[in-house]
Amino acid sequence: MARIGIFIDGMGGSIPAPFREKIVSVIRGLPEIAFSVEEENLASPGALQRMAEHLKAEEVDRAVILGGSPKLYETSFNKFGYPVLLNPYLLTVANLKEQTLQAVANEEEAVEKARKMMIKAIHLASSSGPIESRSLPLTPQTLVIGGGITGIAIALALARSGIQVYLLEKGKHLGGKALELRRFYNRPEEVQKWVEEKVSEISRNSRITVISETELKRLDGHLGRFQATVRKANGTEAVLSPSAIVVATGYEVERNRKGIYGHRSFISFAEMETLLAENEIPSLLRNGKRVESVAFLLGEVNGDVKIDSINAVKQSLLLQEAFQCQTVILCKDLKVSSDGMERLYRRARERGALFIKFEEPPKLSIVNGQIQVDVKDTSAIRKEDEWPLSILSDLIVLSDALIPNPETENLCRILGLHRGNRGFFMEDNPQLLRVRSNRRGIFVAGGCRFPQEVSETLNEAGATAQEVIALLSGGIYPYDLSVAEVDPEKCAVCLTCPRLCPHSAITVEKYAEKNIYITPGIGEGVKWGAARVDPVACYGCGICVGECPAKAITLRHQPDELIYAQMNLSD
Amino acid sequence: MVNFEPKIVAFCCDQSGYPAADMAGGLELNFPGNVEFVRVPCAGRIETLYLLKALERGADGVLIFACYEENCQFLRGNLRAKSRLSYAHRLLEKIGLEKERIEICHLATNCGPKLAETLHRKSEQLKKLGPNPAKI
What we know:
Oligomer: heterodimer
CATH superfamily of the largest domain in chain A: FAD/NAD(P)-binding domain
Strand order of the largest sheet of chain A: 8-7-6-12-25
Number of helices of chain B: 4
Radius of gyration of chain B: 14 Å
Strand content of chain A: 15-25%
CATH architecture of chain B: 3-Layer(aba) Sandwich
Shape of chain B: globular
CATH superfamily of chain B: Lumazine/riboflavin synthase
Structural class of chain A: alpha/beta
Number of domains of chain A: 4
Radius of gyration of chain A: 32 Å
Strand content of chain B: 15-25%
Largest interface: A-B, 38 and 43 residues
CATH class of the largest domain in chain A: Alpha Beta
Number of domains of chain B: 1
Structural class of chain B: alpha/beta
CATH topology of chain B: Rossmann fold
Number of helices of chain A: 15
Largest sheet of chain B: 4 strands, parallel
Order of helices and strands of chain B: EHEHEHEH
Number of strands of chain B: 4
Strand order of the largest sheet of chain B: 2-1-3-4
Shape of chain A: elongated
Distance between the termini of chain A: 20 Å
CATH class of chain B: Alpha Beta
């Protein structure tokens, strides 16, 4: 019979001494109970150390903690437990503070409930088992997919920290979408020169291997043991074995110029950018004709106007300052949330750019070979001041639709990732884990998550590099086996679990080297495949356990018995 | 029958239900007397069998506290739970048990009051339904 030590956490006076005494009095002297001691602040590493010593002295390995919410203790137990030789899965917490003392008004009832909860915790503790901790060696090698500015920035940051980087690029050259830009909105230098500098820095760096004209064809394995098969344009294949993977494939633009939008007056932001760079100050010529007025039409193509707003304000300022053009920005909403945009917007207004806010979409018509925009300005304070306006301008700048890279779907299938909002790559948690994907060791950064501005994307590249460095710099990945486990003898290879696993941690590899299970009784050498959960990739959510029709999967840290014990019912 | 206090087994998702229960406790909202919380890593862990076994072993009602839809940390765990629940409902109908005995409640970590309210409502509802006849 397992003997159990009881630790009572006073929770800084939240659990009063008489209450504690009343509860513990019922179990004193029982043969299972080795001792009961009072402690304060059990979640601290120091208290954990004392607890380990106490348990060792009494030769007891399981403990029940009477205190607050288990969530309070678990982080500390999982982090500091193994170093002091205390298995966190042998510690059971009874949540007396939140679930009895505070939740039951009548004191006697509270005591009764607390006693029940304590006894339930003792049952749980005696049926729980230890779970070992392991570590996986990691080689400092990373595969970065996509040679745009995100990929370049990540590769450089990783190489600086001593990590070997394979930079995979589908096209011939590095640089990506940023090369269509000529100027940053918030820096003085030119984009192309800046990108060229970075690319030459990459070619000088011995830790970065650029593999151009190559695509990812297949990915096997999990964190630390990825096997990526890449295929060059000429058909040759190679296998890389990186420890971590960063996806930075960016977004794509789609031009829709149907109907009136096909008129020659309409140009895109990228075309405007080229026009601005090619012309000499002070006159802007297009097809030999001088351009004097430019209108920007926002919100017609893209729902999210952040990038369009930045481009429109930036280009409008350039047009006004260098080429003396009159600019009009027609928008439903303007987003100036990026760094320095508010200032830029103010400057554009001061220089005389007209900002017109509309509610109903403007009407477009052709008058004398020019596009006339009829719009109602709703930015006036009084309703009667809202005037219908007709704007005739030489050029109308209209955004291209920003869409996910067409490769995204295929890449998601290869990498086992999910697609989220509008078909872009999905992050693990949009607020907290922005650059992590659903799989451990695979990160998504930059425009492949959603269209981003250059400065924004560079920030994200920094964040991603930091995450990868944090993962790989230790050289090992420590994990415990609180994961799902397949019993290969029961597995019928129905493929339910690999489809269901949100972290793509389950694979079925028939006749592969690692996943062959040989069962005695069927005959020597009979081999078949079975599902296998990779303990490094598993998050222990238990969805596969609940769904497995053969009940072949168990959750190591929460088997069925523990669930039934928690129900605390008669049988 | 006057002092019938229904026994409720409440499965709590570790991401939403359990912190919500802690919050309800912290706010000193009363729970009905006979509730057992079962902590699971995700609502997707809850098997159909657990729901039925809970009734078989003497619970009068079962509640699942899961995350809001599209809010699951593991993507579709709460939807799996929901589909298993509807399967359990079909089985209950076949054996002639009220399907109201098993219910799912979607909440977030900050929904302590909602959790306490749901427990009370369930308790009242079960009092009207009476003890679970399927108890062995």
